[in-house]
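Please decode residue identities from the backbone states below.
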């Protein structure tokens, strides 16, 4: 029971990040701290079945940001997988075209209001 509670606590808080606070601390000459890395979930390969689309997401500065984008996309009905690359800002998404479409994916990320998102154009 204790292990479960610890895992639940870590999953809820280990990837939290406040980019504005980090920027303010860095601007004030404070030591730059890095946010937690994305969880394994955000870097898992996208399933090969289904329709795929690549999104360009700007404004992600840490693992918490990547986790937020991943969670938003996985919350869209029909999404079967998402791979977030924090360094490049490219998000690969696999989805069932009968249930989801690129507009729904873009809206899910845009709803976070912290990031700018558009379809990737190679």
């Amino acid at each position: 029971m204790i292990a479960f509670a610890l895992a639940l606590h870590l999953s809820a808080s280990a990837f939290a990040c406040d980019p504005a606070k980090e920027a303010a601390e860095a601007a004030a000459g404070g030591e730059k701290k890095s946010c937690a890395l994305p969880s394994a979930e955000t870097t898992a390969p996208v399933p090969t079945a289904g329709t795929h689309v690549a999104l360009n997401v700007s404004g992600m500065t840490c693992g918490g940001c990547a986790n937020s984008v991943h969670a938003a996309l996985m919350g869209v009905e029909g999404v079967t997988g998402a791979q977030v690359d924090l360094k490049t800002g490219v998000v690969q998404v696999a989805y069932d075209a009968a249930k989801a479409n690129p507009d729904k994916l873009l809206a899910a990320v845009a709803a976070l209001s912290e990031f700018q998102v558009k379809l990737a154009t190679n």
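Observation: Helices lie at 2-13, 19-27, 40-43, 63-74, 102-110.
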